[in-house]
C-alpha cells in the first residue's frame, strides 16, 4: 500500500510524542501518550481449552477454565487420568482437561482436573491468594471449588459439593471487607448468599431488584455489575439501571437513574463496566467513587439475533459518580460500537476496552462483525481527548473471550467459542484456543529510560491498612517528582465481559496529596505513601503495586494487605 501524507503525519506525531515522554519536565497537567499504538504478540497457538474464565494469581500463574459438558477438550489430563462422572451430559468418561494453569514466566500450560460443570460460573481471589470459584451448571451449580496456588506444579482443584443454597449460574461474586464473598443472582435466582458460610449468614436472601430488572424470555440482567462502594455498600447494576445496596440489612440505600436511552447493558446484551480509579483516599469527604458502563446491545437485539437479524451494538458509555447526593449519568461516545467487550484497568489508571463484536449479542452464534481494535480510555482527560484507537489484532474474540492484566503491564487475551461444542471448521467464527498479549504503548522500548524499577519492598510483602509505605525505585535521569504516582490493582476474576473485584487505588501521602518523592542519588529514588485506610477501600488480599511515571508503569510487585 502506498504511504499517504496522512500516514506520514501520523508517524511523525507518534515519534514526537514518544520523545515528549522522555523530556525531564512537563509543565501542563494533561498527560499525552503516543497515539494509535501498542503491539500484539501470539504466545501459544493452542492452550487446550477455550478461556471462558481467567484469574491471575499471586504466583504469576493464570487459572483458566471452560466448561465440562461439551465433550473432549484439546489437552489430556496428566498421568493417564480420566474423569469418570456419571452426571456429565456428553462424555461420562473424559480423559481431557477442562481447566489449565498458565505460567507467565515460562509461557507454558499445565492441565488441571475440574470435576463438575463450571459453565458460566463466578469467583474471586480470597485473602490468602486462593481462587474460590462458585456455581456452574448441572451437577456443579451449587458447588464451590478452591484452587490454592503453588510453585511446584502440585496444586489442583478441590471441590466441595452442594454447599451453596441456590443454583448459581451466570452469577456475580464480590469480595467483602471481612474476606467473605457475596454471590449475587444467577439464572432464575433473584437472591444472594455468602461464602464461606458463618453462623447467622448461611441463608439465601431475596433481592427484588433482580426480578425487577429481568426481561421475560431474554433476562438482560445476568452477571450484574457489582462494585464495593467507599461507604461499604454495594453498587449493583443490572439491565439498564442500578441500586446502592446495604447487604448487611438487606436495604436499598439509593436507586440510581436509568442509564439514558434505556438500552440493556447486562448479559446477554453484554456491555462491560469498571469502577474508575479511587483517588484522594485520605481526603475524607472529598473521596468519590465513579462507575463507567460501556457498550451493550439495543433493546430487542437478543430476539433479533435469534431470528438471524444482527442489530448494531451500542457505541455509548455512561459515567456516574455513585457517591454524589444526586447522581446523574454523563454519556460519552466510543469510537467503535461494541458488545461482549472487556474493560481492563491499566496500572496508570487508564482503561482498555478490548474484544467483542459490533453487532448481535452474547449467546451461541449470536454475534457478528468482530471488533479487532482495542481502545484506550483516559478518564482524566477532557471529554474530547479520552478515547484513543489502538493497533488491531488479527484474531476475532467473540463470545466467551477474556482479557486480564499481567504484572508486567501486558494484557493477556484468550478465548472465543460461540458454539455449544468445540467447532474448528465450517463455521463463521471457529472455536479459538490461542493465547496472545497486547502491550500498550507504555511498554514501548523507547520508554525504557523513564520506566521505574521497584527495588523495595520485595514482592509478596505484607502491608496493613493506613500505614506509611516507602518504596525505593530506580528511574534513569532527572525526573519530575510531581509526576510520580503509586497504584494498587486487585487482580479480577474475568468472564462474560465483566471483571469481578477489579479495583485500582491511587495512593497518596499522609496529607492526602501527591506522593512524596526523595532522590537518593545515582538514579535511586524513594516514594512515600500511605496504604488505603480501611478494608472497605481495599478488601484483604493480594494486590499488584506499581510505581508510575508519566503514565509509564513499573513492573508490579505483589503485596498482601491484611
Short account of what is shown:
The chain is mainly β. The protein is globular and about 65 Å long.
Task: Draw up the topology in text.
Elements: H1 5-22, E1 39-44, E2 53-56, E3 61-65, E4 83-84, E5 93-94, E6 99-103, E7 108-112, E8 122-125, E9 131-134, E10 144-147, E11 157-160, E12 172-175, E13 181-184, E14 191-195, E15 205-206, H2 208-212, E16 225-228, E17 234-238, E18 241-246, E19 251-255, E20 272-275, E21 290-294, H3 301-306, E22 316-321, E23 329-333, E24 342-345, E25 351-354, E26 357-360, E27 367-370, E28 375-377, E29 387-389, E30 401-405, E31 411-415, E32 435-439, E33 453-456, E34 461-463, E35 468-474, E36 484-490, E37 493-495, E38 498-500, E39 503-507, E40 516-521, E41 524-530, E42 541-549, E43 552-553, E44 557-561
Parallel strand pairs: 34-44
Antiparallel strand pairs: 1-32, 2-3, 2-37, 3-6, 4-5, 6-7, 8-9, 9-10, 10-11, 12-13, 13-14, 14-15, 16-17, 17-18, 18-19, 20-21, 21-22, 22-23, 24-25, 25-28, 26-27, 28-29, 30-31, 31-32, 33-35, 35-41, 36-39, 36-42, 37-38, 40-41, 42-43, 42-44
Identify the notable features of this structure and list them briefly:
562 residues, mainly beta, six-stranded antiparallel beta sheet, 3 helices, 5% helix, disordered N terminus
Shape type:
globular
Record field, number of beta strands: 44
- Radius of gyration from CA coordinates: 23 Å
The major pleated sheet works out as: 6 strands, antiparallel
Model description:
By secondary structure, this protein is mainly β. Residues 1-35 have low confidence and may be disordered. Helices cover 5% and strands 35% of the residues. It is globular.
